[in-house]
């Protein structure tokens, strides 16, 4: 029996989620580790995604409405129409090798079944709609499905509405279903109608994982422990952001201060230490209230594919004194002080771009 390595990741930027699936697919294809598929359970910031068959008319909200609520827009290679992801929703990305059983309908049914059984375990009668994909409570969709296959390895997956802001679905025609008799619901809303609170996200995610593993005939196992890291955005007295250029052997890309949290070290202490080691600055750092997960891409360092290595990163900011001149470590070859917009454009990673925006808006 193949194994299903389950990773509970928390917040993941949508762009980083796409990279995560790509790296996991490379690992599955290479058998790293052998006979192992992956399931990533996570939450995205507000985002509207367009599948291959999406119609532009199914985006209803004005740009100003979307911008005020922090929405991003992304086109994807999954099937389906327009979908919303956001806080309070559990997104599942199974990266599974179906070459031993090339039945796409059965696979999609397994995704639906995991959501239906999770609802049943909490006393909510969910099922399938005769026309539309997903998991439904009567005429209200509680979970969406959209998948992509490449050489029988899956990506994308399902989005289960635990307790999202249901008003955000007004931005789109969900999944392109314009029937006014059909709507969207959440587990929290259905339980509230019964006078019951919603369970913790971890409990629901664990149920989804267990039911999906059973439906796919996989043995669920825990994912490898994540590497804990910090990022620090140094902001100069004039509001510009300090970026550092990594050495070629370390990837050769621009970044703010980043680094690992050592065993037994607190994140705040790690942030101060990394800032001092990489720039020479001895100043206070402040948390930005932003934690996210992403996968390290071995190709950035010229290394061959491996099993996905996950980082969980906490972001901080620091105010540099007027006239500060950085003293670089051996990890970097250059620095630049840039306006926040220019700094964000130079950063290739979505989580670091968000950290910059949070640091200058703090």
Sequence-ordered SSE layout with sheet pairings:
Blueprint lengths: L2 E9 L2 H17 L5 E8 L3 E4 L12 H6 L3 E4 L6 E4 L3 E7 L8 H18 L13 E3 L2 E11 L2 E9 L21 E2 L2 H7 L7 H16 L2 E4 L4 E9 L5 E6 L7 E2 L1 E4 L6 H13 L5 E12 L12 E11 L12 E7 L1 H7 L3 H12 L1
Helix pairs in contact: 3-5, 7-8
What tags apply to this protein structure?
single chain, 362 residues, alpha/beta, BirA Bifunctional Protein, domain 2, Nucleoside Triphosphate Pyrophosphohydrolase, 2 domains, four-stranded mixed β-sheet, 8 helices, globular
Description:
The protein is α/β, with parallel strands linked by helices. The protein has eight helices and 18 strands. The strands form four sheets. Strands 1, 2, 6, 7, 8, 9, 10 and 11 form an eight-stranded mixed beta sheet that branches. A four-stranded mixed beta sheet has the order 15-12-17-16. The longest helix is centred in the N-terminal third of the chain and has 18 residues, at 104-121. The protein starts with a strand and ends with a helix. The model has no long low-confidence stretch (mean pLDDT 96).
Report the count of strand segments.
Answer: 18
CATH class categorisation of the largest domain: Alpha Beta
Question: What is the string of helix and strand elements?
Answer: EHEEHEEEHEEEEHHEEEEEHEEEHH
The domain count comes to: 2
Shape annotation: globular
Write the CATH homologous superfamily of the largest domain: Bira Bifunctional Protein, Domain 2
Main beta sheet, described? 8 strands, mixed
Report the span from N to C terminus. 50 Å
Residues in β-strands, percent: 25-35%
């Amino acid at each position: 029996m193949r194994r299903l390595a389950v990773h509970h990741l928390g917040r993941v930027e949508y762009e980083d989620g796409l990279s995560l699936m790509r790296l996991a697919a490379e690992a599955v294809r290479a058998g790293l580790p052998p006979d192992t598929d992956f399931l990533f359970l996570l939450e995205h910031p507000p985002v509207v995604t367009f599948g291959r068959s999406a119609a532009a008319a199914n985006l209803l909200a004005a740009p100003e409405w979307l911008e005020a609520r922090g929405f991003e827009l992304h086109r994807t290679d999954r099937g389906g129409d327009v979908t919303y992801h956001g806080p309070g929703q559990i997104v599942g990305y199974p990266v599974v090798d179906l070459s031993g059983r090339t039945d796409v309908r059965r696979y999609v049914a397994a995704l639906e079944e995991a959501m239906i059984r999770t609802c049943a375990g909490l006393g909510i009668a969910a099922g399938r709609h005769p026309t539309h994909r997903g998991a439904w409570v009567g005429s209200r969709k509680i979970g969406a499905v959209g998948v992509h296959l490449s050489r029988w390895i899956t990506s994308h997956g399902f989005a289960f509405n635990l307790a999202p802001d249901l008003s955000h679905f007004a931005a789109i025609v969900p999944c392109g279903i314009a029937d006014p008799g059909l709507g969207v619901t959440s587990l929290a809303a259905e339980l509230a109608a019964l006078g019951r609170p919603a369970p913790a996200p971890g409990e629901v995610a664990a149920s989804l994982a267990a039911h999906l593993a059973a439906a796919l005939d996989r043995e669920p196992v825990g994912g490898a422990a994540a590497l804990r890291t910090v990022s620090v955005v140094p902001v100069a007295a004039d509001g510009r952001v300090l970026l550092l250029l990594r050495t070629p052997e370390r990837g050769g890309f621009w970044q703010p201060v980043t680094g690992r949290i050592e065993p037994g070290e607190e994140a705040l202490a790690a942030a101060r230490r990394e800032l001092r080691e990489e720039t020479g600055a001895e100043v206070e750092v402040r948390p930005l209230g932003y934690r996210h997960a992403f996968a390290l891409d071995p190709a950035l360092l010229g290394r061959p594919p491996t099993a996905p290595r996950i980082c969980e990163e906490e972001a901080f900011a620091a105010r540099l004194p007027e006239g500060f001149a950085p003293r670089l470590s051996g990890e970097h070859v250059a620095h630049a002080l840039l306006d926040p917009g220019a700094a964000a454009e130079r950063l290739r990673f979505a989580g670091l771009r968000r950290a910059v925006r949070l640091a200058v808006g703090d």
